[in-house]
Every structure is written in C-alpha cells, then in structure tokens.
Amino acid sequence: MALRGFDGILGSARPDISANNGDNTGLFGPRKLVHVVTLQRVNILLQSVRCLAIGSTLVLPPALAQPLPEATLAQAQALVAQASAALAPAGARIVVVPGVLDARLRLAPCEQVQPYLPTGTRPWGASRVGLRCIQGARPWNVSLPVTVRVLAPAPVANVPLPAGAVIDATQWTLTETDWAAEASPVHGNADNLVGRTLARAVAAGQPLRAADLRPRQWFAAGDMVRVVAVGSGFAVSGEGQALSAGVEGQPVRVRTDNGRIVSGMPLGERRVEVAL
Length: 276
What we know:
- It contains 3 helices and 14 strands.
- By secondary structure, it is α+β, with helices and mostly antiparallel strands.
- It has 4 domains: 6-59, no CATH class; 70-150, no CATH class; 152-212, Type Iii Antifreeze Protein Isoform Hplc 12; 217-275, SH3 type barrels.
C-alpha cells in the first residue's frame, strides 16, 4: 500500500494565513496551536510506521532450505535401495524417490554428510533416511523423507471380486505391481491362493494382499496335531492335543503327550511350530 505524504495524511503543517489579523492568530486561534497539533500527528505517524515495519517481518514467507548436493542424495538413495532389497522378492526393481527437507531448516555448511537409516525405520513405501554432518564447523542431524517403490510380479485381480468370494485360478493374472504401496504384504504365489476366501472386496487391477484374505483354520480344538519344536540348529517333533482352534496367524496352546502345555503357531494342516 503506497503511503501518502505527511500533508496528505496529517493535513498541512504550514501556518494558516488566510485570516491573519495582525495579532499572530489564525482561523482556529494562535498559530503555535497549529504546530502542536501537527507534532502530535507526526508522532502518531511514526508509531504507525513502526507497527507496519514490525508486521512486515511477521508475514514474510520462509526462505527455502538449501538444496542437498547430488552426491549426498545419490548416497541416501543407494542406502535405502540396499535395505529395501533385503525385504523385496527376488528380481524386484526398487525405485527410491527422495523428498525435500523442511523449508524452515537452516543447515550450516558441511564438507561431509553421512546418510543412515534411523533405528526401527522400515525402508518400504513412505519412509525416511537420516542425514548427519560429520565434518563441518557445526554438526547437524536431519531426516529426509523418501518414497520407496518395490516393483515385482504379483497376482492382480482380472475382475472386481466381492468379500466372501472363493478364489479360483481364472480370476488373477501375474502383473508387475508396487509391493510397497501398502503395509500389508503381497501374495506372490498365485497357486497358494486357490480356494482361499476374501475377507474384503478387491477391485479389478488390485493386487491381493494378506489383509484381503480370511485366515485359514488348520485344525479344531481337541484335534491331535504334530508339534515341531525349533531351536538354534535343531528341531524335534512329537504329538499333542490342541486346546483351541488352530487359526492362521494366531497362537495356539497344545498339551503334549507328557502333559506339558506349550504355545506355538499353526502353520499347516494339524501342524504347530514352537520356537525354543
């Protein structure tokens, strides 16, 4: 907003001579009164200018954070891609797309930046990589957002399928898809899907994930099951009676032949695995 001159805002500070009667008075009384009023208005203007100056500092947009060197971005992408490969299926294409740092950051110059994966970070889908300055006048440590895509073949629905549908081999086609697009794992083997029941509807073109399927029940409570105890470098097996239904993904208790009760995971028809 353009500011008018002092005369435009405050009125003229010149003495009023339009009604000079020789006694140094004007239309509104002594001229010195005119000057007093003008000085008060000047003070008001100065206060207003100071307020405008303070306000202008509050509404200025934040400057953009300094861009990272291309070499640093390449190192960060390589680190994330290597970690993702350990979780991906064989032959998968891994694409790591770096994001941008928080625009409010002000990073001191650094001669060497080291990328690292923060503890507990899963390099899958929307993730992050740490960047720390290890050679610079002022050390710093920030997080860079990244998006990880894991592209590999997976069974994809040919047609929309409702919840409760029983899967058959004609409903699916192996198509390259992003395994990391959701947290639930993709089923890579179409042969293992035949006869399974959908827990929720699946759209055409959508890959089948573990959360889309109803858990299988491998045995009922009271059934005799084979118990396999697995330790470091060894495994022993025996028989036992299931104390509850063996539902896929849920622990089950089994009473062994000697009366001991153990807890394990149902992994197949009348089979329970116990970790030692």
